[in-house]
Input
Amino acid sequence: MTGMYPAFLVLAALNANGNAHPVQPNRQLGKADRQKLVASLVERMRIGTQQELLVALQRVGCVVTQATVSRDIRELGL
Output
């Protein structure tokens, strides 16, 4: 699986179980890496709202705006 995602994304996704700690706090991700992280979190967690996704991203150190989350969801077809 690490071949598909950068190692820090895999660690962040695996740690995102409600007790998550940032792998690299407030890391600025590029769009492609951020969207891979979004897809990974949605796949592994029960996320029902944009706000829940925003919080999950914050827990793994990816601080973004609600507008960014909204665009990512639309572009990923979620």
Summary: Helices lie at 7-15, 31-44, 50-59, 66-76. The chain has a mean pLDDT of 75. DSSP finds four helices and no strands in the chain. The CA atoms of residues 18 and 56 lie 8 Å apart.
